[in-house]
């Protein structure tokens, strides 16, 4: 596996971008913790798939952070395709770890791109695996964190846009560092598109627009137009030049108050015990303690549901004969998330086999 430290001299985030990141407080970020669900439609109005974004509180290395999960799947011109992003983002919007998976199922083969980035010490490490037919290409890139001030990943971009939408104001010359589709350091910029009216279901609502542009060294810049409701919920998203648009079809429940914190309440049914009541009481206490412990663990690790949902989606789309081999291949890139020792060991083994 080739290990490369990419040259990023001459590229840096603007002063306005760094000031914007420093201005975001925890209260604003807490108002960004919700889910968005949009329907992907063609220019003729045909439904092609679904796009979802979820942001939740989480912990990473025992520190509070945000778990971001975005998933897009559907079929364009009868070609199944999808993208998923799962990441941990710090309260300063630094990307602690991110996994990105993109696939296109063609008639006779599948194009599959996977990448995994993680911060280790003073460096950002990124593993990339591209599979096309029988050809598998692996690369490892290393970026010095000292040169990545103002870096924005796909996940942190989603949070930045929600904050901008709630503020309804975008600073001039807001330019960040980011990665292009070929895993090269480039810049991304944001600008406002103003307000307009949009139909959501049967209701006409006012939305605020944001344009994000990612430069490319060898290709034309890629731009996205996103429009948001006043509370930061995404109302529409489209890549400029694409015939496919993602649209909100139903207004979300208003955030805040009792609606946000409401939890399901299950009525306890009386139990009739005919044996040792002390033993039964001990058993029930232990059962409730385990249930609470398991529920707490699931809440602290929202990536569990996201990871399993993505895996089942890809499994059902491909329908492999050998589920065990498919699962081993799918989860292989996540092996680097176990611990630093195992990550280094796995990397060494791969390097030996490649050379």
List the defining traits of the structure above.
15 strands; 355 residues; 15-stranded mixed sheet; globular; 27% helix; disordered N terminus; alpha+beta
Number of strands: 15
User: In which order are the strands of the major sheet placed?
Assistant: 1-9-8-7-6-5-4-3-2-15-14-13-12-11-10
Beta-strand fraction estimate: 35-45%
Order of helices and strands: EHHEEEEEEEEHEEEEEEHHHHH
Instruction: Note the main sheet.
Output: 15 strands, mixed
Helix coverage percent: 25-40%
General shape = globular
Using the CA coordinates, give the radius of gyration. 23 Å
Task: State the secondary-structure class.
Answer: alpha+beta
Detail the poorly predicted runs: 1-7, 255-274, 340-355
Count of helices? 8
Distance N terminus to C terminus?
7 Å
Q: What would the average pLDDT be, to the nearest integer? A: 82
Question: Could you give a short description of this structure?
Answer:
This protein has 355 residues and is α+β, with helices and mostly antiparallel strands. 27% of the residues lie in helices and 40% in strands. The protein has helices at residues 15-23, 26-30, 154-167, 257-261, 277-300, 303-318, 323-331, 340-354; strands spanning 2-5, 35-41, 47-60, 63-76, 79-90, 95-105, 110-120, 123-132, 135-144, 174-179, 185-200, 203-214, 222-228, 234-239, 245-247.
């Amino acid at each position: 596996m080739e290990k490369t430290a990419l040259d990023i001299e001459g590229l840096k985030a603007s002063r306005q971008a760094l000031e914007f990141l420093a201005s975001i407080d925890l209260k604003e970020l807490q108002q960004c913790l919700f889910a968005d669900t949009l329907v992907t439609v063609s220019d003729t109005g045909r439904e092609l798939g679904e796009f979802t974004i979820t942001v939740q509180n989480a912990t990473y290395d025992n520190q509070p952070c945000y778990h971001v999960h975005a998933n897009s799947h559907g079929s364009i011109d009868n070609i199944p395709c999808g993208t998923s992003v799962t990441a941990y983002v710090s309260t300063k919007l630094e990307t602690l770890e991110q996994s990105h998976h993109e696939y296109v199922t063609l008639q006779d083969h599948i194009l599959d791109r996977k990448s995994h980035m993680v911060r280790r010490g003073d460096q950002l490490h990124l593993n990339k695996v591209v599979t096309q037919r029988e050809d598998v290409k692996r690369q490892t890139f290393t970026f010095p964190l000292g040169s990545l001030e103002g870096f924005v990943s796909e996940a942190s971009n989603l949070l930045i846009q929600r904050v901008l939408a709630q503020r309804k104001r975008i600073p001039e010359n807001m330019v960040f560092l980011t990665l292009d589709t070929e895993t090269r350091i480039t810049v991304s910029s944001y600008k406002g598109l103003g307000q307009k009216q949009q139909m959501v279901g049967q209701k006409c609502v006012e939305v605020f627009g944001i344009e994000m542009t990612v430069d490319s060294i060898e290709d034309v810049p890629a731009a996205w137009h996103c429009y948001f409701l006043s509370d930061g919920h995404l109302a529409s998203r489209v890549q400029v030049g694409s015939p496919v648009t993602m649209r909100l079809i139903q207004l979300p429940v208003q955030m805040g108050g009792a609606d946000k914190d409401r939890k399901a309440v299950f009525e306890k049914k009386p139990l009739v015990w005919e044996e040792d009541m002390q033993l039964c009481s001990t058993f029930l206490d232990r059962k409730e303690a385990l249930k609470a412990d398991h529920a707490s663990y699931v809440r602290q690790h929202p990536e569990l549901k996201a990871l399993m949902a993505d895996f089942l989606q890809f499994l059902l789309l491909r329908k492999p004969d050998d589920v065990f081999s498919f699962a081993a291949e799918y989860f292989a890139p996540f092996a680097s998330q176990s611990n630093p020792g195992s990550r280094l060991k796995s990397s060494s083994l791969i390097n030996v086999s490649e050379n």
